Amino acid sequence: xxxxxxxxxxxxxxxLLPPLSFVVPDGFHHVPVDASAGERPASTxxxxxxxxxxxxxxxxxxxxxxxxxxxxxxxxxxxxxxGLGIFGMGDExxxxxxxxxxVCASQHADTEAAARGMLAVLSGDPLNDARWLDLPCGxxxxxxxxxxxxxxxxxxxxxxxxxxxxxxQIQIYLPFPTGPYMVVFTLSTASMQxxxxxxxxxxxxxxxxxxxxxxxxxxx
Length: 220
Hints:
Blueprint: E1 28-30, H1 40-51, H2 57-76, E2 79-88, E3 94-105, H3 111-123, E4 129-135, E5 138-150, E6 164-175, E7 181-189, H4 195-206
Antiparallel strand pairs: 1-2, 2-3, 3-7, 4-5, 5-6, 6-7
Helix pairs in contact: 1-2
């Protein structure tokens, strides 16, 4: 997709970012963060039907307010893209993950210096696995973190431990070569049995990142 500035719930003057495009694989359902307030109800309805294709009208109707609010909040937070990935695993059920893309301002004048600075910052946390990446579009930094979460479930006995789940997150920090911005790709999942496949999927997305305008003619 091509990321373009989009209005938030308050409809402020959009941030004029340099060109940025990337390709998301099949299996992701696009949360309509790029829709205007007027377009959001219809876009949210289409998202819900894609997310629950076997659902009924009552389910779609009841889910609409929740996902409409989620889309509005993510848009107000400045996300350029947000998607939910749902992938069938045969008799084992489904695996799921979320993918978001955000852009933050940066004061860098050199992409390599910006990436090295980010690597130094992220490496300071012992819970992070931060590494340098050389991508086709430029230098980047990956940061992997794992978290163990307790599920707030009702206990059957006083001594029974709360259920725990492991979640994984990988973030890619990629400085724009065409302006003082940094794009951050974030993939999160609790389906850790597919962690390797999800990392490979994000790697494939990163191979498609471009900071050129696809509508501009090629000078070559």
